[in-house]
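Whiteboard transcription, Tuesday session. T.W. wrote the structure tokens on the left side:
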């Protein structure tokens, strides 16, 4: 049982049987994403892999998140593409990445991470559901072997001029039968492999279904090449890693920054843009992954900004793209059963090893098999049960939730979140903002008695101060949270209170709730 976000070495060792298979699945998903984002960004193909390795091997241990995964993000592709064009070369752009990392480090020390606590639960759940829908819609063309856009592309308007929905129509008109067969077989293997009957067999439980599906896909495509060449999957629908012959070819693939643009004002504009967008995407991602975490651990957001800052500085120095905590990889990590940060570290190590030693083998993996993996992850994020549960919470929770989904689906992640926030704030502006609570502490023999008396109206804007207060309550204390005078308490605040009560025993805190309404705390799996 995991009790704390700051785990000990024995906790990591105890969960290896879950973390290593989960890391392997994340690696299989991250590999084509890193390559695709590099390609779409107009950067060297190897740059995305560098970022993925730095994110997995270094940032994982600097971060306070146990389940978050960092790497190149699809949401930054346009910024990278424009940044390279503005600064004239990729080497000049790398300097902007390093400066952006330094700015993120400063933001961490300025405690700007508190912004992450101001995102309402309905908007975060809307984001997760939207990501799930987008994964399904975007992976269907790859599943059919008919998509020329990069693997991992998430925006509504695509580089090829089509959009998410018109791409589906096009894909069904140019199906590659071999890719479709491989995708269907991969999907069936994973669904059957994860059934309770199969999972009762210990050896099957240790081997991730995604690995079985991918290895089977490679074997099936090899059979196609030998016996049914007309079904063999086109190379454009296979993983395409750069093949290294040795250290000399590795050095040829790497790019290193130049200091020449230091006098160019555009450098600082690009760096500032990367820092702000990457920080927002990171805060959104860690908040979302914390929602998915079955142990409900809370990521220290200021520490996360510092970790991302150091990661971007190192990535830029080694020739990599800018990075963020990435929700697709993080949700895949949770869905694969990860328990600790060993899984994200494993994915980073496997990325490095695959490039250095097994590139030729990795280049045989059909994208339709990897699309099948993401179809399952997408469904887990956007199950019909989530919509029903959110609807039961009432109009003020459901409306921002559904608007966030639609806005992200038809624009992109950051724009959609801003629209969802605006809708959430619309409801809050009708309320009368007052001090959210009165705090009283009394020292008793053996333990402190702490009384938190909530005010008449407690909105989601009060969530941050209440959540931080609860997080910093002393161990071995008795806490009374009294809502007798409260006419309205926002769902987000109630959720934070009930989640605190659920885990308070881990700090030997006894919690007594007076007149605090019960709410359904939605579990994301």
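and on the right, the sequence the group agreed on:
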């Amino acid at each position: 049982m995991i009790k704390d976000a700051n785990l000990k070495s024995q906790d990591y060792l105890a969960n290896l049987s879950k973390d290593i298979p989960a890391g392997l699945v994340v690696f299989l998903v991250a590999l084509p994403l890193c390559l695709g984002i590099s390609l779409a960004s107009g950067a060297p193909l190897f740059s995305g892999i560098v970022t993925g390795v730095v994110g997995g091997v270094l940032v994982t241990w600097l971060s306070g998140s146990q389940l978050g995964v960092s790497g190149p993000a699809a949401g930054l592709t346009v910024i990278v593409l424009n940044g390279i064009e503005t600064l004239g070369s990729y080497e000049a752009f790398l300097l902007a990445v390093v400066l952006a990392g330094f700015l993120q480090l400063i933001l961490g020390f300025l405690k700007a991470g508190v912004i992450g606590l101001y995102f309402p639960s309905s908007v975060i759940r809307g984001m997760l559901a939207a990501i799930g829908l987008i994964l399904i819609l975007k992976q269907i063309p790859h599943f059919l072997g008919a998509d020329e856009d990069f693997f991992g592309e998430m925006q509504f308007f695509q580089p090829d001029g089509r959009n998410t929905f018109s791409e589906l129509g096009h894909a069904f008109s140019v199906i590659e039968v071999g890719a479709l067969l491989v995708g269907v077989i991969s999907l069936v293997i994973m669904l059957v492999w994860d059934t309770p009957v199969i999972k009762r067999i210990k050896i099957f439980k240790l081997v991730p279904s995604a690995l079985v599906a991918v290895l089977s896909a490679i074997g099936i495509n090899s059979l196609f090449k030998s016996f049914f060449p007309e079904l063999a999957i086109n190379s454009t629908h296979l993983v395409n890693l750069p093949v290294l012959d040795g250290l000399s070819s590795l050095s040829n693939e790497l790019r290193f920054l130049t200091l020449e643009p230091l006098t160019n004002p555009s450098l600082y504009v690009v760096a500032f843009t990367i820092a702000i967008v990457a920080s927002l995407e990171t805060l959104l991602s860690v908040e979302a992954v914390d929602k998915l975490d079955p142990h409900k651990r809370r990521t220290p957001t200021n520490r996360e900004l510092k970790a991302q800052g150091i990661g971007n500085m190192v990535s830029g120095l080694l020739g990599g793209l800018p990075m963020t905590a990435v929700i697709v990889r993080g949700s895949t990590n949770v869905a694969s059963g990860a328990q600790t940060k060993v899984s994200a570290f494993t994915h980073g190590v496997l990325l490095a090893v695959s490039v250095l030693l097994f590139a030729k083998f990795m280049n045989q993996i059909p994208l339709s098999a990897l699309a099948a993996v993401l179809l399952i992850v997408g469904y887990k994020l956007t199950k019909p049960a989530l919509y029903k549960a959110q609807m039961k919470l009432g109009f003020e929770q459901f409306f921002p939730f559904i608007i966030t989904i639609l806005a992200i689906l038809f624009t992109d992640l950051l724009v959609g979140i801003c629209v969802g926030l605006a809708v959430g704030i619309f409801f809050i502006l009708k309320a009368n903002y007052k001090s959210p609570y009165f705090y009283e502490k009394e020292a008793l023999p053996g333990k402190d008695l702490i009384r938190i008396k909530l005010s008449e109206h407690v909105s989601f804007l009060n969530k941050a101060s209440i959540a931080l207060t609860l997080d910093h309550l002393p161990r071995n204390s008795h806490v009374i949270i009294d809502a007798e005078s409260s006419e309205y308490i926002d769902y987000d605040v109630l959720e934070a209170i009930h989640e605190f009560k659920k885990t308070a025993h881990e700090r030997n805190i006894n919690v007594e709730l007076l007149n605090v309404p019960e709410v359904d705390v939605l579990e994301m799996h």
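Someone added at the bottom: The beta strands are 70-72, 323-325, 437-444, 447-454, 457-458, 478-482, 488-489, 510-514.
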